[in-house]
Amino acid sequence: SPAPLPLQSSEDIRCKCICPPYRNISGHIYNKNVSQKDCNCLHVVEPMPVPGNDVEAYCLLCECKYEERSTTTIKVIIIIYLSVVGALLLYMAFLMLVDPLIRKPDAYTQPLHNEEENEDSRSLAAAPATAGARANTVLERVEGAQQRWKRQVQEQRKTVFDRHKMLS
């Protein structure tokens, strides 16, 4: 009679025997739920494909490995992973729905837009897409701030070079 197995599900433990081709018999892989001490060709390979006198030679060719895993741990990790991905997707959907409501014209951004409209025509020609236009995304806001910063740096350079010329 087979030895009693520990209290684990049948998917968690197994003995796997890989038997290569032998004479006129093709190779085969055998799986069976047995204890670790019974993990050998004689207990796992059923039905035995060779006659009684060839069993020993056939079993010497077979490679048997005892395998153990925790399907419960695998299931828990997958549930956690899917929960995190689901939460991130919900957060993304929330941001996409709430973002237009948050993007009302702010009191502190209005002077910046007025300042852009009052700049000379050369500056407006350099950045027609951002002048007076309301930014729709965070990236566009950052891009607009970057363009304003570049214009300010350009004006500072122009002022410094004009002063340098006057001093020379």
Describe the model.
With 168 residues, the protein is mainly alpha-helical. Among the domains are: 13-69; 72-103. 52% of the residues lie in helices and 11% in strands. The protein is built from 6 helices and 3 strands; from the N terminus they run ββααβαααα. It has a 3-stranded antiparallel beta sheet, with helices on one face. Strand 1 and strand 2 (28-32) form a beta hairpin. The model is unreliable at 1-7 and 119-133 (pLDDT under 50).
Short key terms for the protein model shown above:
transmembrane, 11% strand, 6 helices, membrane, three-stranded antiparallel beta sheet, TMEM9/TMEM9B, mainly alpha, transmembrane helix
Q: What's the structural blueprint in terms of helices and strands?
A:
Layout: E1 13-19, E2 28-32, H1 41-44, H2 55-61, E3 63-68, H3 71-102, H4 110-117, H5 121-126, H6 138-167
Antiparallel strand pairs: 1-2, 1-3
Would you summarize the structure shown here?
Helix content is 52%, strand content 11%. It is mainly α. Among the domains are: 13-69; 72-103.
